[in-house]
Amino acid sequence: MTSILAVVPCLAQRDLERMAEKVREVRNRVNMTPLDRATLRDMAWQLATLASRVRSWDYFSTPVTYVSVALAHLNVIADEQPSPTQMALHIAELDHALETALNELPRSWSSATTTDGARVAVLMMQCSVRVLPVGERARYRDEFAAELYELREAPRRMQLAFAVRLLIHSMGLRRVLRQAQVAPIRQRGR
Amino acid sequence: MTLPTQLVLQAFLDAFADDPQRQLYGLEVCALAGLPTGTIHPILARLERLGWLHSEWEQVDPKQEGRPRRRYYRLDPNSVAAVRAAMARAQASTAGLRQLRPGLAGGGR
């Protein structure tokens, strides 16, 4: 167990470092002329993936919130053809959001290396969501995250016990949800 | 019907008796039913599928509240009679079991 507790904060920190690297890369690329829209689209996709990973460790991650704002502007720049004035505005907003995300990252790093027990619980919660049917994952991820959040003041062992029980019962939940999906199809077939 | 399912349904029936509009979220259901946290989602999903429970997201802005929104469950008012009948049948069939093991979950209640 000790080894897992040591590994999980490292995973969270690694995701944050990757996101920081990508944020810097996007900042440099956006200021280059001429704009290579295909590369920007690709970078936006990579940044969104990394942001989603960081959010799974830290639901209220401040850097990720700013990265989301940056992504909205980046998508407009890459996918639409804004006028030069609008383009300048979008680039300014994008740059500001990315800079703020970078400034907020050190605080996330410190939290990623302290609350290791909670990180293990989050990791187990994610595993229990993974076994559910794809269409139900988002709902249960948010539902489990809300319940785990309610236990934030509880002792670490209670958070871990909650996550372990979620994991144990996830196959039962999967069975019920799959039956719920199959039943209407069978009824239609009759 | 398993004993944990009966306990969950009883928690909802009690909440309904207090206030027909009362909604419960996962941890509340566990506390009221006396079941460990993290064990009731398959039961809730099954009851929802039967149409006995309805669920919806809490109507709050997570950013403003500073916490994720909860998933609330409530008993379907049209299913209360069916739930009570099912509970009566289940309790009758497990009465012998409760006598054999009085310490069994719900048996002491």
Structural class from helices and strands of chain A?
Answer: mainly alpha
SS summary, helix count of chain B: 5
SS elements, strand count of chain B:
3
The chain-level structural class of chain B is: mainly alpha
As residue ranges, the low-confidence spans of chain B are: none
Beta percentage of chain B is 5-15%
Which terms would index this structure?
heterodimer; A: 190 residues; mainly alpha; Four Helix Bundle (Hemerythrin (Met), subunit A); 2 domains; 7 helices; elongated; B: 109 residues; Arc Repressor Mutant, subunit A; three-stranded antiparallel sheet; 5 helices; 54% helix; globular
Quick description:
Chain A has 190 residues and is mainly alpha-helical. Chain A is built from 7 helices and no strands. In chain A, helix 1 (2-30) crosses helix 5 (116-130), helix 2 packs antiparallel against helix 3 (62-79) and helix 5 (116-130) runs parallel beside helix 7 (156-189).
Show the helix and strand layout.
The complex is a heterodimer of chains A (about 190) and B (about 110).
Chain A: H1 2-30, H2 37-57, H3 62-79, H4 84-112, H5 116-130, H6 134-150, H7 156-189
Chain B: H1 3-18, E1 24-25, H2 26-33, H3 41-50, E2 53-57, H4 62-65, E3 71-75, H5 80-100
Antiparallel strand pairs in B: 1-3, 2-3
Structural write-up:
The complex is a heterodimer of chains A (190) and B (109). With 190 residues, chain A is mainly alpha-helical. The longest helix of chain A has 34 residues, at 156-189. The termini of chain A are far apart. Chain A has seven helices and no strands. Chain A has helices spanning 2-30, 37-57, 62-79, 84-112, 116-130, 134-150, 156-189. Chain B is mainly α and 109 residues long. Chain B has a single domain, classed as Arc Repressor Mutant, subunit A (Orthogonal Bundle). A three-stranded antiparallel beta sheet of chain B has the order 1-3-2. The longest helix of chain B has 21 residues, at 80-100. Chain B is globular, with a radius of gyration of 15 Å. The mean pLDDT of chain B is 85. Chains A and B meet through α6 and α7 of A and α3 of B.
